[in-house]
Structures are given as C-alpha cells and as structure tokens.
C-alpha cells in the first residue's frame, strides 16, 4: 500500500508549527525573565543596601538611603500647633554643602508635585520643596520622593525635599512601597506617575477635615535651604529665564538693603505650553491677550499696587542688566512675590487653606518697616488663567474664616511692633 503523500505533508507542516510555537514560548519566557531581572535590578537600585548606578558609587547610594531611613525613624517634629508632623530635610540634594546666593522655595501636595518637572526646566539651581501628604499618600510619599532622586539626576543634584503630614500620621520606609514603582525605568516615567495623579484633588480639597497648611509649608521650604536670599513661589509658577545669573550680577553691583525686598511682577498665561523667557517676549504675549496680570479676574486689587502699566511701559527693551525700576509702599491687599533675605519675617502658620495667607506676610513686612522695590525686567508667571468656578466648593467659607483671622493678626502686629507707625 502506497503512503499518503498528503498526510505526510500535513504532519510535516504540523511539526513545523509546533516547533515555531515552542520557540515562541521559549522567547517569551526569556523576555519575562529578563524583565524580572530588570525590575529586581531597579528595586535594588531604589531600595537595596548596596544599590549601584553607573554614574555614582554604591557607597553614596547606600549612605543616601541610610540617611533617609534615619530621618524617618526619628519621626519628624511637630509644628507649633501640634497638628502637623514635619520631616525637614528628609532628602537632601547633592549640593547641600554649598551655600547659594539665591534659592527658590516652593510647596505642593502630592497631586500637584508633577509641576516640579517643568519648574526645574526653568530653574536649574537650588530648590527647596515642602510636600504635604495625607491619608494613603503619607505611606508612599518618602518612597516617591526618593525615587525621583534615583531616576532624575537634576532632581538629585538640586532639590531638597521636606515632608509634612498630619500629626497622627507617619511616613513609611521606602521598602514598604516598592511595588508602586514597578515598571519605572527613567525620570520621564517617574514624573509620568505624578502626572497621572494630577486630578485627584482640586486645589485645597484634599479630604474631609484636612487643612492644607500652605504657610507652614512655605516656612519649612524657605528655612530648609541655607541661601542668602530666597524666592518663594507656588509650584505651578515659574520665574523668568536666567534669573539666578542676572540677580547674582545685580547683587555684585548692589546688594538689597536690610529693609528691602525685591518684587517680581506676577502674570498668568493662557496656554502653559511655552512660558515667556524674557520681558520682550512677555510684552508680545501681553499685547495679544495671551498674558495678563496675575489674579486679574479673581482679585485685581491683590496685585494692582505693582503698577503694571508703569512696569510694562518702562523705557528700554528689558534685556539689559537687572535693576530696580521703582520702590513702593505696601498697600492693602497687595500680595507680591519677592526675593527676600532669610531675615524677613516668616509666614503666619495659622493661615491655612484659601485666603489671606500671603497678604498677611506682606502686611507684616510693611509694619516691620520693609520697602518693596520692583525689579525692572524679572517676573514670575502662573501656568494657566485663574478663572471663577475653578476652585473647590469651600473656598468662600475658608476666605471668610481667614478674613476674621486677618483682623486679629493685624491687631497682634501692633504689639509685636510697638514703635512702628505703619498699619495694614
């Protein structure tokens, strides 16, 4: 009987398919094992006692992680109210031993921390960041901040992190939250995780009975870096380009007086894709309506004393050496952004949530005898227009409560500065 040619061919094709399928399974198994080794390597890099990176010796990594563990085990310190736990200098930058002339201080909740990436795109100098965490964020916060340092060399080099949470909460050790970083391979991925959390909270609406301590955070960030001068900004704002060098050149010619702060006019931009770098670009955007004074829609009086018309029409293109254009006396309810020496009065930490938190500090500067000198070509920009309806539901209630606090705050200044004739 003759063999079936068709059957033999069928068995040959079937055998070939089985071989291909087996090779595919072996290949997938190899990839899975490789991915697992890569992840174990990343976990070791993040949390291992002898973590290795090609650009730094393992001893430095181990020392950095050990210092973080020590800071966490110390439990932080309570603030003056006893309602918050503060881990100051939880993670220090590689530049911690250097004393900068000018540093930037900012604050953020975990859901707003994604702005740090774009801020560092504009500000490549010392940056002190106070982060507020609540609830489930507290446990992961230390690991999150540590991971940013591991994956992002510019963060590791320049940023000092401080962590604030409720007094009844405590930050967890990074090893406990390593699963949150599965799949992370680079800095873009680390900030991508933060970007994914940007809509978890709206403004200060973090949770029921949770108050965002903005002035405490500002004080922690400002006091967390040993600089001669500090610019305090919100994390979704950025200064004009090259401010650090221009200020250093100015300070070499003229140091600010002991009773002087240097005001940077504040603006907001409709589309945050590209922030104006210098005054000529800002002026062009202003003329076509893409840029406007900060808080123009919500509280035009809060920035009006800056005298925008005068500043925008100063002679010259604004591209020369930085200098003082004019000096102003504070007027209620001005809340300027300024460069100030470390000796300026701190923010009053009783102000939380929305309303009067920055005005109160500017008011105290005025009563304490400070003058406000407006820089001629430096500025700050907020990403996006501030518009009615974008705030959380309790904004007006918080504003009313803080207005009452502001009244008693002003009375307290009379006792604090008995020889001052100035009032708010």
Automatic annotation (TrEMBL):
The keyword Membrane belongs to this UniProt entry's keyword annotation: yes
Matching InterPro entries: B4GAT1
Membrane topology: Single-pass type II membrane protein
GO cellular component: Golgi membrane
Pathway(s) it belongs to: Protein modification; protein glycosylation
Family: Belongs to the glycosyltransferase 49 family.
Name of protein: Beta-1,4-glucuronyltransferase 1
Organism: Denticeps clupeoides (denticle herring)
Gene that this sequence comes from: B4GAT1
């Amino acid at each position: 009987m003759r063999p079936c040619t068709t059957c033999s061919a069928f068995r040959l094709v079937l055998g070939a398919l089985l071989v291909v399928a087996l090779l595919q399974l072996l290949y997938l198994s190899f990839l899975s094992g490789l991915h697992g080794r890569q992840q174990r390597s990343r976990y070791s890099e993040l949390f291992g006692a002898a973590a290795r990176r090609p650009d730094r010796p393992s001893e430095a990594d181990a020392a950095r992680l050990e210092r973080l563990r020590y800071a966490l085990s110390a439990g932080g310190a309570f603030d003056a109210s006893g309602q918050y736990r503060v881990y100051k200098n939880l993670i220090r930058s590689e530049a911690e031993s250097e004393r900068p002339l000018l540093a930037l201080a900012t604050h953020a909740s975990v859901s707003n921390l994604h702005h740090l990436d774009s801020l560092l795109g504009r500000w490549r100098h010392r940056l002190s960041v106070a982060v507020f965490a609540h609830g489930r964020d507290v446990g992961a916060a230390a690991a999150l901040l540590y991971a940013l340092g591991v994956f992002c060399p510019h963060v590791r080099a320049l940023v000092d992190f401080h962590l604030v949470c409720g007094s009844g909460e405590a930050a967890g050790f990074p090893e406990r939250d390593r699963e949150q970083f599965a799949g992370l391979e680079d800095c873009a991925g680390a900030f991508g995780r933060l970007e994914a959390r940007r809509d978890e909270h709206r403004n200060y609406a973090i949770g029921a009975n949770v108050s965002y301590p903005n002035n405490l955070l500002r004080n922690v960030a400002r006091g967390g870096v040993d600089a001669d001068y500090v610019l305090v900004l919100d994390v979704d704002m950025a200064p004009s380009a090259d401010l650090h060098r221009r200020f250093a050149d100015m300070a070499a010619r003229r140091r600010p007086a002991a009773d002087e702060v240097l005001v940077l006019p504040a603006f907001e931009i409709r589309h945050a894709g590209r922030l104006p770098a210098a005054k000529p670009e800002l002026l062009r955007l202003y003329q076509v309506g893409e840029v406007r004074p900060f808080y123009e829609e919500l509280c035009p009086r809060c920035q009006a004393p800056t005298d925008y018309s005068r500043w925008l029409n100063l002679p010259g293109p604004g591209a020369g050496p930085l200098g003082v254009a004019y000096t102003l006396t504070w007027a209620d309810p001005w809340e300027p952004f300024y460069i100030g020496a470390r000796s300026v009065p701190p923010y009053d930490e009783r102000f939380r949530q929305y309303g009067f938190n920055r005005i109160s500090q500017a008011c105290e500067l005025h009563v304490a005898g400070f003058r406000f000198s407006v820089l001629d070509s430096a500025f700050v920009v907020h990403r996006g227009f501030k518009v009615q309806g974008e705030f959380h539901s309790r904004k007006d209630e918080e504003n009313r409560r803080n207005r009452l606090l502001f009244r008693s705050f002003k009375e307290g200044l009379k006792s604090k500065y008995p020889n001052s004739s100035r009032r708010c």
